[in-house]
# Entry
Amino acid sequence: MKRKLRMGMVGGGLTSFIGPVHRKAAGIDGEIELVCGAFSVVPGESKQTGEALYLNPNRVYETYQEMFEIEKTLPPDQRIDFVSVVTPNHVHFGPSKLALESGFHVLVEKPIAFSLDEAKTLQKVVSKTGLILGLTHTYTGYPLVKEARNMVKTGKLGKIRKVYVEYPQGWLSTLLEGTGNMQASWRTDPKQSGMGGAIGDIGTHAANLAEYITGSNITEICAMLNAVVKGRKLDDDASMLIKFDNGATGVLIATQVAAGDENNLNIRVYGEKGGLEWKQEDPNTMIVKWLDRPKEIVRAGQKYLSDDAKAFTRTPAGHPEGYLEAFANIYRAFGKAVRDYKPGKKINAAKYDFPDVEDGVRGMNFVQTAVKSAQSTRKWTKLK
# Structure
C-alpha cells in the first residue's frame, strides 16, 4: 500500500479534549490522513470542526451511521481504511460495532465499551469479520515501558513477586462537574461513563500497564472504591490488592482526588533478582534496582536498550519522548497491521505490539470485578 492510510473520526469535535490528541498523534509519522468525520452530536459542531480541519464538506457527517453508510459506497481509492472512535464511554460500542460491520478497521479510546457485555459483543464481531480493533492504552507506547517489559520477559529480574502501580490525579478534588465542565460532567455520570468512575477512567490504564510490563494477567481483586467528593455519583478514589496468574501480588491505586497531582502514573515491579521503577511524568528515565549491586539509571534513546525499546524510540537521547509520541507509537503499530491486513488472514496484534480487543475485554472485566469486590462483604473477587 504505497499511500497514506485514510482515517475517519467519530467524536473529537471542537470542544473535545482527546480528539485533537488523536489527530496530532495520527499525523506525526505522515502515514495517516484524516479525510472524514462525524465529530459531534451537537447540531452544527461537526460541520464547524470539519471546516476548522479543512476537510471536504461532503465528507463531514452529522451522524456516524450516515458516515459509514456513505463511505462504504465510495470507490476503494477514496473510502476510509479505518475509524478512530474518540467519544465518551457510552458511545464507544455503537460506532465500533457498526464500523466493523461496514468493513472498516477500528481504533477506539479506552475503555473499549460501556459494559463487559458490550466488550464481549465487540470481541465476537471482530472474530466474525476478521477486521482489526485497536485500543489506545497510551502508556504502553513509551519506549522505556517497552524496555521494562523486555527486562521481565527475558528474566533479568527473575520471577516477578510484587507489583505496585499508582495513578494519582487531583483534577476532580472538587465537584467540578457542578460547574459545567464537560470533561468532568461525562466522566462522573454513570449514564455516560458506566459503572466505574476513576476506576474506569484511569484504573484501567494502571491495570493494563501492570499486565503489559509483567506479561501476567490479574486474576483476583480485593477493592475499596470511594466517592470522596460530596454529591459525586461515581467513585473518584480506588485502592485494591491484586493477584496475578504467575503468583505475584500487588497494590493498585487510582484516584482523582489527590490534590496537587497532575498525571502521576507510576509503577514498581520487583522480581527475585531486582526491580524497576518508571514514572509517566519523567518518561525518559527508569530506575533499575539490583539485589547484589548498585541501582542503575536507564535512559531512553541509548544504544544499550533492547530492540523492543529502540523500535519505538523517535528522538536522540536527551530529547523527551512524551505523551503524543507514545500515542503516535500505537497509531503507527496499528497502522502497520492495517497495511498488512488481508481478508481471511487474522492479524496478531502482539506481533505489532498494540492493545487490541482482548485487552479491551480484560479492561472491562477489571472494572466490573473491582466494583463487585468493593460491594462484596467477602472482598476477594475473581475475574471471570
Notes: The first strand starts at residue 5 and ends at 11.
